C-alpha cells in the first residue's frame, strides 16, 4: 500500500505535465478549449507548490542561508532566504497577470491592461527559467517551473489569438479608442509587453526597497547561495552524524537543547559532539576494556535495536526527544565512569578528537 501511495505521488506531476502539453497542442490545432481547463491549470499550479515543498523536505533541502552549518546530506536553499520576499512578490504579480489574461475576456480589456498583464506573466516566466537553471541537476525540482512556463506561454498565445480575432471581426470595445489605435494589432501586444517588463520590474523593486529588500535582490537571490548552479558561495562542509546510533542522532537536535560543545572525527567524518555522546562513548570504552565479553553482547543487542529506531529519526524535534529519553542512561553511564575510572572527565574529554587525543594528566 505504501508503495502505491509513493508511486501516485511521483506519477501525478508527470500526469499534469503530459496534460499541459496535450492541452496546448490541442489548442494549436483546434483553436478551442473547455472552460474547465482554466480551473484545472490553477489547481495544478497550487498543487505544484505543495509538491515542490514536500519534495524539498524529502531531498533534505534546508531553506537557510549558505553560511549556516548543515548536517549529513542536507543542502542549502536554492534561493537566498533574505530575498524570498522579492521572488515571492514577483511570482504573485505574475500570477495576478495570469488570472487577468486568462479569466477576463479579451474584448473587455483595454490595450494597456492587456500589455501590463502579459508583462507580469513574462516576469513569472523569467523567474521560472532562473529556477530551472539553478536546479537543473534535480529533475523533480525543474518539473514544476517547466509546467508553469508552458501554462504562461499558452495563456499569452490564446489571449493574443482571441484578441486578434476580435479586432479582425471589428467587435473591439469602443472605449479607449486612442489607446487602441496605438496597439491596433493584437500581434504587437507580446512585443510591447516585453519592452514594459523592465519598467514594471523597476516599480516592483522600488516598492520592495521600502520593505527592507535590496535593489539587487533579484540577482542575489540566486548567486548568494551554495550547492546550486548559479551559486557563488562555498558553504562550510557538512557535519556528519551517524544515523545508526541514538546518541549520535540526538546530538543533531536543536542546539539550545542538546548543547553541542564541539566537532570531532568519527569514521573519517566530522561529527557534532555533545556531552551526552562523549559520556556514552566513554562508557562503552570502559566496558570494552574491563569486560570485553559483556561489551560484545551489549554492542550486538544495541546494533540490532538502535538502528531500526534511529533510521526513522529525520527531524530535529525527534532528535531532541531521543536526547531527553537518553538522559537517565547518561546519568547511569556517568555514575559508572566516576566509580571505575580514576580520571573520568579526562576520558570523556578525549572522545571523538579532531587530532591525536590529549595526554591524560596523572
In short:
The protein is 64% helix and 4% strand.
Q: How many strands, what sense, and barrel or not for the largest sheet?
A: 2 strands, antiparallel
Order of helices and strands: HHHHHHHHHHHEEHHHHH
Number of domains: 2
Structural class call reads: mainly alpha
**Helicity level:** 55-70%
Q: Quick one: how many beta strands?
A: 2
Shape: elongated
Strand order of the largest sheet: 1-2
The fraction of residues in strands falls at under 5%
Mean pLDDT: 82
Computed Rg? 29 Å
Please mark out the parts with pLDDT under 50 across 5 or more consecutive residues, or reply none.
356-362
Tally of alpha and pi helices: 16
Kindly report how far apart the N and C termini lie: 61 Å
Describe this structure in words.
This protein has helices at residues 2-30, 36-58, 84-103, 111-134, 139-168, 177-182, 189-195, 197-209, 217-223, 246-250, 255-258, 275-290, 292-310, 316-325, 327-340, 344-349, and strands at 260-266, 269-274. By secondary structure, the chain is mostly helical. Residues 356-362 have low confidence and may be disordered.
Amino acid at each position: 500500500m505504501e508503495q502505491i501511495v509513493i508511486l501516485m505521488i511521483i506519477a501525478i506531476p508527470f500526469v499534469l505535465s503530459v496534460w499541459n502539453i496535450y492541452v496546448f497542442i490541442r489548442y494549436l490545432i483546434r483553436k478551442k478549449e473547455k472552460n474547465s481547463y482554466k480551473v484545472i491549470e490553477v489547481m495544478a499550479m497550487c498543487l505544484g507548490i505543495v509538491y515542490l515543498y514536500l519534495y524539498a523536505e524529502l531531498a533534505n533541502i534546508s531553506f537557510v542561508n549558505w553560511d549556516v552549518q548543515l548536517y549529513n546530506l542536507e543542502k542549502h536553499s536554492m534561493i537566498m532566504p533574505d530575498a524570498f520576499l522579492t521572488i515571492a512578490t514577483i511570482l504573485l504579480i505574475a500570477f495576478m497577470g495570469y488570472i487577468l489574461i486568462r479569466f477576463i475576456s479579451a474584448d473587455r480589456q483595454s490595450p494597456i491592461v492587456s500589455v501590463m498583464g502579459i508583462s507580469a506573466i513574462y516576469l513569472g516566466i523569467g523567474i521560472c527559467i532562473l529556477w530551472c537553471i539553478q536546479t537543473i541537476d534535480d529533475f523533480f525540482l525543474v518539473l514544476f517551473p517547466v509546467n508553469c512556463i508552458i501554462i504562461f506561454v499558452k495563456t499569452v498565445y490564446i489571449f493574443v489569438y482571441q484578441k486578434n480575432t476580435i479586432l479582425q471581426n471589428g467587435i473591439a470595445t469602443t472605449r479607449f479608442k486612442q489607446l487602441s489605435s496605438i496597439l491596433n494589432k493584437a500581434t504587437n501586444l507580446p512585443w510591447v509587453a516585453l519592452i514594459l517588463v523592465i519598467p514594471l520590474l523597476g516599480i516592483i523593486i522600488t516598492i520592495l526597497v521600502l520593505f527592507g529588500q535590496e535593489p539587487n535582490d533579484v540577482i542575489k537571490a540566486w548567486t548568494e547561495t551554495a550547492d546550486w548552479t548559479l551559486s557563488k558561495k562555498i558553504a562550510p562542509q557538512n557535519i556528519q552524524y551517524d544515523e545508526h546510533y541514538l546518541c549520535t542522532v540526538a546530538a543533531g537536535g536543536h542546539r539550545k537543547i542538546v548543547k553541542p560543545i564541539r566537532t570531532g572525527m568519527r569514521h573519517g567524518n566530522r561529527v557534532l559532539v555533545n556531552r551526552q555522546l562523549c559520556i556514552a562513548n566513554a562508557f562503552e570504552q570502559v566496558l570494552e576494556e574491563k569486560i570485553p565479553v559483556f561489551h560484545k553482547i551489549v554492542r550486538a543487542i544495541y546494533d540490532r535495536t538502535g538502528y531500526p529506531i534511529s533510521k526513522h529519526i529525520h527531524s530535529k524535534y525527534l532528535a531532541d526527544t531521543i536526547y531527553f529519553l537518553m538522559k537517565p542512561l547518561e546519568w547511569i553511564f556517568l555514575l559508572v565512569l566516576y566509580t571505575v575510572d580514576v580520571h573520568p572527565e579526562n576520558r570523556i574529554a578525549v572522545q571523538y578528537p579532531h587530532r591525536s587525543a590529549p595526554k591524560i594528566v596523572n
